[in-house]
């Protein structure tokens, strides 16, 4: 092994020994995740990166956003599944919190594979890190292959329409893409809808500087707090929804997409009723 690779391995081991508890080691050992001999899967997922990422995300989950998650028993402990939430908050904090709740699910931990926007891998370091903790470019080929490997894939059908919307549009579901439903039908994967409440308030955007966004080549540049605010977050996981093939037309696909959208809307309303304080 080259000297620089040995140094990286040694540093990673020291960080793991220092910050990763036996509890986390045991938790990750229960995750049904096939990895290669070097500890990676074909999309860059790496167990060591997950181990080092858990302690700071746990602090965010438990102490900063004080997340309450309901319905975790609805996530299958094994096998292919699409986790489909609403999207909000400018930064993908919702994906991070959903991923942590899945990883620590007492009914069966899963490694959530979140579909991310194509511009993220263009950001130095960030793209590699997102791949290492389970993020993958939101591409139907990637998603289909993961489902065939019995993965739990997190898809946000609103895309940047949801994450980049202004605060005045909070909790208003944006247009859903149809791709996730085609994948569910083609790969016979159940859909678990998720209603996320609280991430809208973590980074409220008052205005999008569209010309600057186009200049920088990013989806949006919001006028928003520089860091996420400590809003309380509630996650409601709904019961799995199953849709059978074949469908005869795209209208039938759209009808099934609307069923999922209505389910998510109901879970959002449930979360809003449960919430006693925003912060």
UniProtKB/TrEMBL annotation:
Domain Phospholipid/glycerol acyltransferase: 81-199
Pfam families xrefs: Acyltransferase
Top-level taxon of the source organism: Bacteria
Keyword terms: Acyltransferase, Transferase
GO molecular function, one term: acyltransferase activity
InterPro entries assigned: Plipid/glycerol_acylTrfase (IPR002123)
SMART domains: PlsC
Keyword Glycosyltransferase: no
Signal peptide coordinates: none
Keyword field contains Transferase: yes
Protein name in UniProt: Lysophospholipid acyltransferase family protein
Organism encoding this protein: Banduia mediterranea
């Amino acid at each position: 092994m080259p000297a620089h690779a040995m140094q990286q391995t040694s540093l990673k081991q020291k960080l793991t020994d220092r910050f990763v508890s036996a509890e986390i080691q045991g938790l990750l050992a229960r995750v049904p995740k096939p990895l290669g001999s070097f500890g990676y899967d074909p999309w860059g997922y790496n167990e060591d990166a997950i181990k080092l990422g858990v302690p700071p995300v746990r602090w965010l989950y438990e102490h900063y956003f004080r997340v309450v998650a309901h319905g975790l028993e609805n996530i299958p402990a094994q096998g292919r599944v699409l986790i489909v939430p609403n999207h909000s908050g400018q930064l993908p904090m919702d994906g991070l919190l959903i991923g942590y709740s899945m990883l620590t699910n007492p009914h069966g931990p899963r490694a959530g594979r979140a579909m991310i926007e194509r511009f993220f891998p263009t950001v130095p370091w960030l793209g590699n890190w997102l791949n290492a903790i389970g993020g993958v470019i939101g591409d139907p080929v990637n998603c289909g292959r993961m489902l065939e490997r019995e993965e739990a894939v997190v898809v946000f059908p609103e895309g940047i329409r949801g994450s980049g919307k202004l605060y005045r549009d909070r909790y208003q579901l944006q247009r859903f893409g149809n791709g996730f439903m085609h994948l569910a039908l083609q790969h016979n994967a159940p859909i678990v809808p998720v209603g996320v409440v609280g991430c809208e308030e973590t980074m409220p955007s008052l205005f999008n500087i569209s010309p600057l966004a186009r200049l920088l080549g990013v989806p949006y540049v919001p006028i928003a707090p520089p860091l996420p605010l400590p809003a309380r977050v509630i996650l409601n996981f709904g019961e799995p929804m199953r849709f059978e093939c074949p469908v005869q037309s795209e209208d039938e696909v759209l009808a099934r997409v609307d069923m999922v959208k209505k389910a998510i809307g109901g879970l959002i309303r449930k979360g809003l009723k449960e919430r006693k304080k925003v912060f």
